[in-house]
Design brief:
Layout: H1 7-18, H2 22-35, H3 43-64, E1 84-88, H4 95-102, E2 120-126, E3 129-135, H5 147-153, E4 157-163, H6 169-182, E5 185-188, E6 201-210, H7 217-228, E7 234-236, H8 245-255, E8 258-263, E9 276-279, H9 284-291, H10 293-298, E10 301-305, E11 313-316, E12 325-330
Parallel strand pairs: 1-3, 1-4, 4-6, 5-6, 6-7, 8-12
Antiparallel strand pairs: 2-3, 8-9, 10-11, 10-12
Helix pairs in contact: 1-2, 2-3
Bound molecules: guanosine-5'-diphosphate (GDP) and magnesium ion (MG).
Magnesium ion binds at residues 95-96, 107, 115-116.
Length: 331
């Protein structure tokens, strides 16, 4: 699908390319954002512009904050698996404990706050895919490691923790939401419409109510539901005892908004071991592009086994695929 861009857009783009300062670049990008027609066909351009605007806004802010204690990119963690999920929450809520339950990572778990100082990645298995989880230092209204702003940009989803063993749990969790908001990271329910402000990075979020094994957890859970259930899907777990973890794994995968696609060669059985993962709504052409850049232009049709088709039906390159479809590409 073609995007019809007004001539002023190209002028703004030329200014962006020539801009010498971050501020001028940002100004031009924001003009491009205003001028860009917002519809289905321009979704990729919209997403690209949005991430550039958000990134530049961060860079400018960090430059203004003066020399950094932690050099940029020190904690950059390469993306792996079907998606990246960050663990955010107040101190002592059980983030590190959960990471040890869901992955093979071994962060320190301790009964005192601020045990976790740096991001710690681990891989979680879910059926036939793996999801990258990143444990982070705690966030409070007056404690915030600046690198969290960088690392949350790479996140496809977040787990927001609530401590059911603490009467102040809801307030501590709200403080996390507020502090991230100040860093232009907005925690939203998965599937929410994108935010209008391109400088804000919205992160699909599940609320993880942890320590449901606590004696007074039930009553605190009721209060937590009142406060948060309209804003986020809520998953109740005990990271220590293991309650609710199977459901949490499923919810995490679903929050990523991706589907699994298996490919096959003509006349051969499908490879059902390692699916490609693509955003929901992706087409045959998108799958081809994920396999190889050239293939995206060359693919003409596909045979599909799965949802909404009869077995082996031939479909066009714009056909929208579904989770667990098996696809044979034809050029
Ligand atoms: N009762 C109970 N304690 C937990 C649970 N999960 C973690 N804890 C305890 O809470 C404390 C803080 O856990 P930790 O994972 O270090 O919290 P973090 O600061 O959020 O990473 C430790 O003493 C854990 O043993 C749970 O599900 N139930
Ligand atoms: Mg920790």
């Amino acid at each position: 699908m073609a995007v019809n861009l007004p001539p002023q857009y190209h002028d703004a783009e030329a200014r962006y390319r020539k801009a010498q300062t971050l501020e001028d670049k940002l100004l031009a990008l924001k003009e491009m954002w205003v001028l860009l027609p917002k519809h289905k066909a321009s979704e990729k351009v919209q997403a690209d512009l949005k991430s550039k605007i958000s990134e530049l806004t961060d860079q400018i802010e960090q430059a203004q904050a003066g020399p950094k204690k932690v050099p940029h990119g020190v904690f950059k963690i390469p993306r792996q698996g079907a998606g990246t999920v960050v663990l955010v929450g107040p101190p002592n809520a059980g983030k590190s404990q959960l990471l040890t339950q869901l992955t093979k990572a071994t962060p320190a778990v301790a009964p005192y706050p601020f045990t976790t100082r740096e991001p710690i990645p681990g891989m979680m298995d879910y059926e036939d895919v793996r999801v990258q989880l990143i444990d982070l230092p705690p966030i409070t209204s007056d404690h915030y490691e600046p690198f969290i702003t960088d690392i949350t940009r790479a996140a496809d989803a977040a787990l927001l923790f609530l401590d059911l063993s603490d009467d102040d749990g809801p307030a501590a969790t709200q403080a996390v939401i507020d502090r991230l908001q100040r860093a232009r990271r907005e925690l939203v329910a998965p599937g929410s419409p994108p935010s209008d402000d391109p400088a804000v990075y919205a992160i699909p979020t599940l609320l993880v109510a942890n320590k449901c094994d606590d004696d007074a957890a039930d009553i605190r859970l009721e209060l937590a539901r009142e406060e948060f259930a309209s804003r986020f899907p809520l998953v109740v777990v005990s990271a220590q005892r293991g309650d609710g973890l199977a459901e949490l794994r499923r919810a995490i995968f679903q929050a990523l908004g991706v589907m699994r696609i298996y490919t096959k060669q003509p006349g051969r059985p499908a490879d059902l071991t390692s699916p490609f993962t693509l955003p929901m709504g992706s087409t045959v052409a998108d799958l081809a592009g994920k396999i190889h850049r050239d293939l995206e232009d060359r693919v003409k049709s596909a045979r599909v086994w799965g949802t909404g088709v009869h077995d082996g039906q031939t479909v066009g390159r714009d056909h929208v695929l579904h989770d667990k479809d098996i696809v044979e590409l034809h050029t």
